[in-house]
Amino acid sequence: MKWLNILGLLGVISGSAFAEGISVKAADPARNCQNCHAQIKSRLHFSDGSSQTLQVDETQLNDSIHGGRLGCSDCHQEKWGNTHPSVESRSVRDFSIKQSETCKRCHFAHYTRQVDGIHFKLLNQGRTDAPTCVDCHGAHDVKDPKNPRVVMNRKCGACHKEVMKTYENSIHGKGLVEANQDHPLCIDCHGAHKIEKSDEMNFRVSVHLVCGKCHGDAERMKKYNLNPNVLSTYLDDFHGMSNQFYQTQGKDGAQAKKYFATCTDCHGAHDVQSLRNKDSAGQVRKKVIKTCVSCHKTGKDWLADAWLSHQKPTRETAHWVWGVKKFYSFLIPLIMAGLLLHILLHLWKLRSNRSKGKQK
Ligand code: HEC
Ligand code: HEC
Ligand code: HEC
Ligand code: HEC
Ligand code: HEC
Ligand code: HEC
Ligand code: HEC
Ligand code: HEC
Ligand code: HEC
After folding, report:
1. Could you give the residue ranges of the DSSP H alpha helices within 104-237?
2. Does the beta carbon of 7 lie inside 6 Å of ligand 1?
3. What is the pTM (predicted TM-score) of this model?
4. Residues 89, 46: contact at Cβ < 8 Å?
5. What is the pLDDT of residues 119-153, one digit of tens each?
6. Which residue, by CA, sits nearest to atom 30 of ligand 4?
7. What CA–CA distance (Å, rounded) separates 219 from 172?
């Protein structure tokens, strides 16, 4: 007991020595870090009163993706030499953020992607609650993030609790069942490193493409008996058209909602629900009109009728639209052909006039 207390005290003393840097008596660079760190009882103390264990379980490292590849000093480079440099961090969190800088030496490509994302920007602004590499991947226990992918999804959910709760109860939340790769996880819509702020222009004007990756994939949709034309019909109607027009105009993202509707305005982002089974036809209609009215203040029943939903116009569902489309698909080629014929005849006439002139 006394022995533990002494070590504990040592921890306090060494930990409070941020300024000088503690001397670790080991001249040999090949010393075994685990001689000390396997059973060290003292803790690392910080000026804000928080502390951190110094014990390292080497089996964690061996079982990690770095196991057998990296030694302690590959990451803790500054620990070579006779002394441990002083720890200047003020808190456990601060320490963790500094330590995670080590990853970028070998994974620079991922680091640069991270730098472009919202999390890194927040960290730079002093938001210490934003994640570093270590929060998502771990430090000594880094595992393959792609296998199984849901583990990472839970990491996102640990910080974004409200979003996670909503998502879990959505139809997409089935993606949490590990074997199922058909449903979207957080990273399918947001990416992993270069995560954009969700109300940024770039994100909003391209959300439909994210949804379309799966909902335009006929094979995947067939499994669930879902309409694979939702993207193409969206792009063909006024909402999709105005979206594309908006993109080329490069207008302000915060204003975008006024100018066009995208998939998530009607379906939600994290609370996407099936519109098929549980609602009777009447209730679906009510829900439709409610969404529409959020933008179309004058929305009445006729508005929903004026919209073709995600159906391609057919003779049965929308005979007028179908008729006009058919008429144009006939008329436009006819006009083009007429135009071409006109030019050809003109050229022919020109040529015959010239040859007549020569004969004279
Ligand atoms: C003689 C025992 C001893 C050896 C050998 C040793 N350490 Fe330490 N280590 C300590 C003590 C004591 C502390 C607490 C230092 C403090 O409070 O500033 C510490 C702190 C640390 C820390 C956290 C604080 C910091 O400075 O970042 C890391 C990381 C660390 N050691 C890594 C290593 C690595 C890597 C090796 C091998 C290259 C190693 N240590 C070898 C005793 C040792
Ligand atoms: C892949 C890089 C990597 C390797 C390899 C690695 N470390 Fe670390 N280590 C880190 C990072 C990053 C942290 C900060 C962890 C945190 O904030 O939770 C850390 C933290 C520590 C700490 C502070 C206490 C703690 O657990 O957070 C000690 C001590 C330490 N490492 C020692 C070691 C020793 C000893 C080895 C070899 C057996 C080793 N490390 C191997 C990256 C690494
Ligand atoms: C000294 C170089 C080095 C450092 C520092 C380092 N790694 Fe690695 N990392 C590697 C190597 C080597 C691999 C294995 C790559 C492979 O299998 O192709 C790897 C693999 C990975 C993988 C899996 C990659 C994949 O393709 O599946 C992840 C995730 C990862 N590291 C994260 C980290 C994190 C997080 C840190 C910081 C705590 C870190 N690494 C620090 C060298 C490093
Ligand atoms: C917000 C969580 C998060 C943060 C922060 C994060 N990553 Fe990742 N990382 C992921 C996820 C999720 C994946 C898996 C991506 C996938 O499945 O496509 C991943 C994949 C990786 C891979 C393997 C990629 C591959 O293509 O095989 C490496 C290496 C990696 N990250 C390194 C880093 C480094 C270095 C940092 C810090 C600069 C970092 N990550 C920060 C979540 C994160
Ligand atoms: C360590 C905690 C933590 C983890 C892990 C984490 N985030 Fe975040 N994330 C934050 C914080 C904090 C913010 C800033 C929120 C705010 O300002 O309200 C943020 C912001 C975001 C934003 C931008 C929000 C906006 O206002 O548009 C998105 C999107 C996001 N995170 C997605 C993810 C995804 C996806 C993952 C997993 C790959 C993830 N986060 C993992 C803490 C975390
Ligand atoms: C199907 C695609 C999709 C999935 C899956 C998804 N998101 Fe989102 N997320 C979005 C969209 C789109 C927005 C923009 C908000 C909107 O349009 O209503 C958003 C907004 C956000 C925001 C900022 C706004 C807010 O509600 O706080 C955060 C944070 C966020 N997502 C985190 C996550 C996390 C964490 C997960 C996983 C649990 C996740 N997202 C899964 C599409 C998705
Ligand atoms: C990774 C693929 C994937 C992405 C990305 C994706 N979804 Fe889905 N979505 C699915 C699958 C698979 C189902 C079928 C779920 C089931 O029935 O179990 C589904 C179901 C739906 C449904 C319910 C259909 C019904 O009536 O039953 C709607 C609505 C929907 N998604 C909208 C969206 C929107 C909006 C986005 C973009 C913000 C999106 N999805 C992104 C795969 C995806
Ligand atoms: C203007 C609102 C609105 C927009 C924009 C919108 N949807 Fe829909 N969507 C609906 C309504 C309402 C229904 C159900 C009613 C119906 O089709 O009869 C529906 C149905 C669906 C279904 C179910 C199809 C089926 O087979 O039952 C999916 C999947 C879907 N939408 C995905 C998307 C995707 C992906 C986008 C963007 C590319 C999108 N929606 C854009 C309102 C919208
Ligand atoms: C996020 C806002 C938003 C939502 C939600 C929305 N719309 Fe629209 N809608 C618009 C905008 C903006 C236009 C104007 C596009 C243009 O003029 O190019 C438009 C145009 C239309 C038009 C063409 C006639 C007109 O007034 O310009 C119809 C019809 C229409 N929407 C029906 C619907 C229906 C039905 C729903 C619900 C299923 C719906 N909209 C939901 C924003 C929205």
Report:
1. 108-115, 118-124, 133-137, 150-159, 161-168, 186-190, 201-215, 218-223, 230-236
2. no
3. 0.88
4. yes
5. 999 999 999 999 999 999 999 999 999 988 899 99
6. 110
7. 17
